[in-house]
Amino acid sequence: MPDTPSPTIHPAWLPSSAFRALGSRRVRIDAAGPLADTVRAEVSRACSLFGGALVTPEAPADLILTTAPATAPAAPATAPAASATAPAATLAASSAALPGSAAALPGSAAALPGSAAALPGSAAVPAVPAFASGSGEGYRLGRRGAATVVTADGPAGLLYGMFEVVRRGEAAFDPALPGERHEPAFGLRVLDHWDNVDVHPVMGQVERGYAGGSLFWRDGRLRDDLTRVGEYARLLAASGVNAVTVNNVNVHAGETHLLTDRLGEVAAIASTLRPYAIRVHLAVNFAAPVILGDLPTADPLDERVRRWWSDTTDRVFATIPDFGGYLVKADSEGQPGPFTYGRTHADGAGMLAAALAPHGAPVRWRAFVYNHHQDWRDRSTDRARAAHDHFAPLDGRFADNVILQVKHGPMDFQTREPVSPVLFAMPRTRLALELQVTQEYTGQQRHLCYLPPMWSGILGFRATGDNAPTLAAMLSGAPGSPAAAGSPAAPGSPAAPGLPAAAGSPVVQQQPAAAGPSAAASGAGLGGAASGRTSGGGVLSAVSNVGDDPFWTGHPLAQANLYAVGRLAWRPDRDPTEILDEWITLTFSDAPDRLRRTLHTLMDDSWQTYEQYTAPLGVGFMVRPGHHYGPDVDGYEYTPWGTYHFADRDGVGVDRTVATGTGFTAQYPAPWSDRYESRDTCPDELLLFFHHVPYTHVLRSGVTVIQHIYDTRFAGARRVAEMRSQWREMADLVDPAVHARVTERLAEQLRSAEEWRDQVNTYFYRKSGIPDAKGRPIH
Ligand code: GCW
């Protein structure tokens, strides 16, 4: 079937109008090579729209985009950013680092794993991997004479610097613009697509996708027209992402061939993404040697199997020289893995790592491994414990280019979970944080749910105490980050991990965007900017929420979640409200104040609103089995999936204490092990995740659990009704197509929120026999 691309694709955060300031200037580009060509094309398109011009090196310019000489330090931490003169002869130096050029490929000696400086805090922590860093991504922004100057560390930095100028608009040309240094905290910023090549009979084209079909695949093959993939690359580069995994971690039979005889399709995607400095990753099937019919075994210690992976991987790199790496889901939810052969996950990952190491590339190995054949009567098995039980004992046994990819919570992307303890239990293993942008459990892009406040709380979590480094600092190896040294969340308070106390007050400390040495630059002892390392180590991954929907994400306002991932990967300590504001400015350029204010009102707290009408106090699930949309309080209660709330006539919640429960609290370091262990210090929002309590238990907020359930369900549904009216009033300020789509989604959100309210309330009223103290109707 031929592709039928929709003629009206929403421009998301890159409408033409966002380029007005840049496009009306005289712009000089002192750089050459493919990425510089991309920048040149962007600038000339903008200039043709707004009357500016690309000018020659001799001509006066309002904006100079240049790459710093590769021989000079990338950015002395103390040097005033704007003081450098634009190097006239940067072209040859920069071309060495262009993607696609041999010198930039990860096989070069400089890019071999283990070559960078060590992470902070522990001598045992492995070196920051060069392969996790995009090269030359940083840049300085400042003024020289009458011009604004972007001096990039390399070609990718030129692209990112150009998009920063776009984001700033007129402010980028303010004569008082201070000198700033920018570089990403996380070196690898990757969006994982759970896209199937063949339409899966149950999961469809995109597993957990709520925005139509795949951008890459259609009915069993690569799309003929990859124009949208190119547009996607452009959007991602503008948000700061630098890698994409093109297929589902559940690698079915057809998709297994992408590694070998269908590699050409992956190469075509790689070519489309490359102009925007985005590398391709592939999810691979652990049993590929068997499935593809080449070998009788996939045993990771079998020499034939190891050779197979090594030869296959060599062919991948021969076809796609800047290939990013593998992603593996093994021994999980039916996927094959090393357990079949009595081997460990370190053995399994090690085999793939050995195949990738000569190319300087990593394997991301997922820690999402648990028993999905449980019996609710067996209280000793706890799914929350599983990842730690499986992986923590293997710390130190993973190869240098293995990155263990850990979901942010111990269960499964629920609306509220504590931060996974695995992230603090493996100091000798490289770890990646996995977020879920696709809203599997958070309203499936029918509900408005701006997720960055949740992510911000996770990135800002301080596992070992209120003055300890944040998770972001630990993972990114950027200890100088203000996030690592900022003011603590109050111990045990509701403002503790993942629990912003109120809207707009995220846990993570803020830093003025531009002031002083940057986060990474101040980590000079780490091989930071001063030593020429232009990106942080570390990996931030997220499951994409994009499809072939004209608005990209189904719900047009869910674009903000996608935008924010890249922005947080550059600056994990940024205020989510500020990121939202930036997204509004770009997406609704020329937005009058009334629209801006309303969007904040609708979105800033929307995650908390969603939480208010769904499963209470961190207990999770209560969704309809299979598709996970809408309420079904007991939907998973008697299934083998290990996702129980244990409500009975006396109380609700999962006892995960050491004293009387599954002992999960002991997987945390102090002080959190103690805080979670005690009902008195466990944050309210996570109470039912850690404790089974009577309905009459009084929360730290002063209300009983049952009354909290009623109050928040009523408040949540009421809030959605208000949101609907507030949006209605925006009709004159928003593109009618966007307005109509959001209107339709809010109507469904309200229907669903009322359904949640009624089902949860009536369930707990009947279980507990305790009426609502305020006498409201419980249906
Ligand atoms: O949350 C579960 C999803 C599965 C998904 C799995 C995973 C890709 O329901 O659809 O499979 O997580 O993360 O592997």
UniProtKB/TrEMBL annotation:
Region (Disordered): 478-531
One GO BP annotation of this record: xylan catabolic process
SUPFAM superfamilies in UniProt: (Trans)glycosidases
Domain Glycosyl hydrolase family 67 C-terminal: 553-776
UniProt biased composition (Low complexity): 478-523
Domain spans labelled Glycosyl hydrolase family 67 catalytic: 182-470
Entry coiled-coil feature ranges: none
One Gene Ontology molecular-function label: xylan alpha-1,2-glucuronosidase activity
Xref: InterPro entries: A-glucoronidase_C_sf, GH, Glyco_hydro_67_C, Glyco_hydro_67_cat
A single cellular component GO annotation: extracellular region
Protein name (database record): Alpha-glucuronidase
Organism from which the protein derives: Actinoplanes xinjiangensis
